[in-house]
Amino acid sequence: MPDLRLASLAVPRTARYAVFGPPPAAAAEWWIAIHGYGQLAAEFLTSCAALDNGRRLVVAPEALSRFYVSGDGALAADQRVGASWMTRESRDTEIADYLRYLDLLVESLGRGVATPPPIHVLAFSQGTATASRWVASGSVPVVRLVCWGGVLAPELDITSPGARLRATRIQLVVGTRDKYATPDRVGAERSRLDQAGLSYEGITFEGGHRLDDTTLATLAASRAG
């Protein structure tokens, strides 16, 4: 058996994102919308239409790992394509890559903008772990983190007084019939946050594992700070 070793090499990547709303300099708010597992940026942004009030710039970055969602042996041309933020393979590297990617995205939005407006983050399903890691990194000031149909990354420091998440308004949104964000899972997450003394708001709506227009519009209209 040969002496097999794994190595890594940083390479340039071209990332894409979907966007609606006014130009960055004219927007009153920036919303970064982090999609869930198996979604693409454009389709997820369509489900965020309730955020469109003419004053919000809404940007959905697309995860860097695309794949064919269906595994039924159909021709590639007939299979739906989705994207994933990470898997267990090379986990730490993938996290570092997408944190840097999100930093660069906001940096690009801010070019030529003297004073960026408040930044809000809306994350769905798998995207909640991605978004919470990014907010916790403290690289970009975020006034609000909405975790919809998912929970914060389990390894995050939420107990120390200086934790970045403590300076962010956190809202946990879940549907009453969400088969992934089950009552047990959501209850365990709320207990974890309560024990850590981390302030958050729990919001529910009638529905499953999806965004809800009325809930999203009401949530977005509330003050972040």
Would you write up a description of this structure?
The chain is an alpha/beta fold. The chain has a single domain, classed as Rossmann fold, CATH 3.40.50.1820. The strands form 2 sheets. A 7-stranded mixed beta sheet has the order 1-3-2-6-7-8-9. The longest helix is centred in the middle third of the chain and has 19 residues.
Entry keywords:
globular; Rossmann fold; 225 residues; 9 strands; alpha/beta; 7-stranded mixed sheet
Helix/strand structural class: alpha/beta
Helix content: 25-40%
Mean pLDDT comes to 93
Helical run tally: 5
Largest sheet: 7 strands, mixed
By CATH reckoning, the class would read: Alpha Beta
How many E-type strands?
A: 9
In CATH terms, what is the fold-level topology? Rossmann fold
Secondary-structure blueprint:
Layout: E1 17-20, E2 29-34, H1 41-46, E3 56-61, E4 65-68, E5 81-84, H2 91-109, E6 119-124, H3 127-137, E7 144-148, E8 169-175, H4 183-196, E9 201-205, H5 213-221
Parallel strand pairs: 2-3, 2-6, 6-7, 7-8, 8-9
Antiparallel strand pairs: 1-3, 4-5
Helix pairs in contact: 2-3
Brief account:
The chain has helices at residues 41-46, 91-109, 127-137, 183-196, 213-221; strands at 17-20, 29-34, 56-61, 65-68, 81-84, 119-124, 144-148, 169-175, 201-205. The protein has 225 residues and is an alpha/beta fold.
